[in-house]
Amino acid sequence: MTSRRFSRSTLTLLVVLFGYLTLPMGMTGTSVALPDIGRDLDASGAALQWVVTGYVLAATSVMLVTGSLGDLFGRRRVYATGLGIYAVGTLAGAGAQDILLLDIARTFAGIGAAGVMTTGVAILAGMHEGPARARVFATVGTTAGFGIAIGPTLSGWLVGAFGWRASFLLFGGAAVLILLLTRLMPAARPEGRPKVDRPGVATFVAGLALLMFAVTRGGESGWGSAQVLVPLLLGIGLLALFVRVERRSDHPVLDLSLIRNRTFRGWLTGATFVVLGSTGVTVFLPTYLQGTGDRSASATGVIMLLLTVPVFVLPSVAGRLVTSYGVPARRLLLTSLLLSAAGNLWLASVLAPDAGAARLAVPLLLIGVANGLGLGQIDAQALSAVAPERVGMASGLLSTARGGAGALALAGFGAALLTLVESRVGDPGLADRVASGRTAEVAGEFTDAWQILVGTVGVTLALAAVVVHRLLRPRPEPLADPVADPEPEPVGAPGRAA
Q1: Distance, CA of 466 to CA of 482 (rounded, Å)
Q2: What pLDDT is recorded for position 175?
Q3: Within 10 A of 196 (CB to CB), how many other CB atoms are there?
Q4: C-alpha angle with apex 273: 220 to 374, nearest 5 degrees?
Q5: Which ranges of 249-296 would DSSP assign to H, the alpha helix?
Q6: What are the residue boundaries of the structural domains of the chain, listed by start?
Q7: I need a labelling partner for 62 at 20 to 30 A (CA). Which of 56, 224, 324, 398 fits?
């Protein structure tokens, strides 16, 4: 019996890890393919960026819901359903002959990705405790890091050798294979008939989607336009209604006590800002490098390894520091935020059209190391602060925060780049071509815009580190209220404050 349990546990871990390898790989790899997609489908600007933005927005809007549905209906079922949706959307994208169809397919794939990313973490959290959970999450972080690291390089090679459609076929095919393998995972059946918080689901998904849509459109259409203000106000109103609904629900999609937990709130805040520190560089730097330096997609993918390889190496190192050496996990999170701040500020000072790998190495490595230290440990520590029956919900909230931060960073970074370049060249059409990497006519102005943006990100991250420090610092024993808001030990490191 023990051998069978071990076998099932190992198989489940391998299947979940396969998902955490494939989806991050497809996410980062798509950004490298954007210039080729734009040329092939004659697309630029918002329509082209929606290939990435639509995916992130859709995933973010439903992550909280998929996490809670996993708690209700079984996490394997939601995981498998997400894989099926992701596979259909990705394979449909491979055959798209129009940018609108590609954007729709990518948005559909994002919905599926939400189910995979939230319930995969919840499945593993429910099967492991203590030091074992910390080790497993370090492995998850390493695997996702490898996917993030290798995605741009693999996609760059596929795009250069076979065209951008080949990368979508590869990732869609991998999702089909993982879907077949989910049959090897144990299925937990919920007790009784699950109750779905339909009003909560409807108000949250609609409100967040409208809010994020308005943000993505704000830089393009102007914040005072009706097509931005209407969805913005509707989104805010629906999210306010969502909070009211959840307070009265006896089976909420989001238990608001999670937010009141200071420790969970600290890790949630840290997760949000770690994402903000890397998203703009990860998604938009390949376009800058190809557009201003006349580099190929494959050459750009190699440079991006400086940013992504540390994300593959560091999660296991961070896990060992916490479990074996008793390093407080909160210190790793603070170090991550400060390193990301330093990397963005450094990048602002050295970025130039002729900057090669050597010149970009230190800032990109700093941002990559920052991501690697936080990846995996954030989830392990945050989920240790919640009850087992709320792990899926908490995982969904973490993923929503990260996805929302990523979507806002994508929208804000892209819109700000376009606005800053346009303010310098005075030609909206030229600014659009420059920001989408289709011309290097005004590389200097494009570089100025980049330097302003990454410098601003660096300052924001330094301030965020102060906030996270205040939330996660241990309180004096006599003043602590262990009933209202316990300070859990770091996972896998008894006797030390997290």
Answers
A1: 24
A2: 92
A3: 14
A4: 135
A5: 257-260, 262-293
A6: 2-196+253-479, 197-252
A7: 224
Residue that is written with structure tokens 């608001």 in the block: 256
Distances (CA, A) of 210 to 61, 201, 229, 235, 328: 9, 14, 10, 5, 39
**φ and ψ at residue 343, rounded to 5 degrees:** -65, -40
DSSP for 9-40 reads: HHHHHHHHHHHHHHHHHHHHHHHHHHHHHHHH
Q: Do 118 and 393 touch, CB atoms closer than 8 A?
A: no
pLDDT reported for residue 439: 59
The owner of tokens 């999450």 is 137
What is the longest distance spanned by two Cα atoms in the chain? 72
Would the pTM count as exceeding 0.90? no
Please state, in angstroms and rounded to a whole number, the distance separating the CA atoms of residues 444 and 47.
Answer: 25
Cβ 396 vs Cβ 252: under 8 Å: no
Question: Alpha-carbon distance 16 to 14, whole Å?
Answer: 6
**What distances in angstroms separate CA 424 from CA 61, 419, 430, 443, 445, one per listed residue?**
35, 9, 11, 11, 6
Q: What share of the chain is helix, strand, coil (3-state, %, to 5)?
A: 80, 0, 20
Token representation of residue 285? 């730097």
Tokens of 260: 């009141």
* Average pLDDT over all residues of the chain: 80
Q: Is the pLDDT of residue 359 over 80?
A: yes
Q: What's the chain's length in residues?
A: 498
Q: Most confidently modeled of 1-10, 245-254, 400-409, 441-450?
A: 245-254
**Cα–Cα–Cα angle for 9, 15, 18, nearest 5°?**
140
Mean pLDDT is highest, among 188-202, 227-241, 319-333, 451-465, for: 451-465
- Whether residue 422 contacts residue 414, with contact meaning beta carbons closer than 8 Å, is answered with no
CATH topology of domain 2-196+253-479: Growth Hormone; Chain: A; (1.20.1250)
**DSSP H helices in 95-129:** 99-127
Residue 175 CB partners (closer than 8 Å, separation 6+): 22, 83, 86, 87, 90, 112
pLDDT tens sequence across 366-423: 999 998 887 767 877 777 777 777 777 887 888 788 877 876 777 778 777 777 877 7
- Give Rg (Cα) of the chain: 22
CA 10 to CA 30: how far, in whole Å?
31
Report helix angle 297-323 to 357-374, nearest 10. 40
Question: The tokens of 54 are what?
Answer: 């639509």
Q: Smallest Cα–Cα separation from 313: which of 255, 266, 375?
A: 375
Whole-number Cα distances in Å, 405 to 27, 81, 121: 15, 25, 19
**Using CA atoms, how far apart are residues 467 and 463, in angstroms rounded to an integer?**
7
| Nearest residue to 485 via CA among 245, 270, 322, 266 | 266
Closest CA to 85 of 68, 102, 105: 105
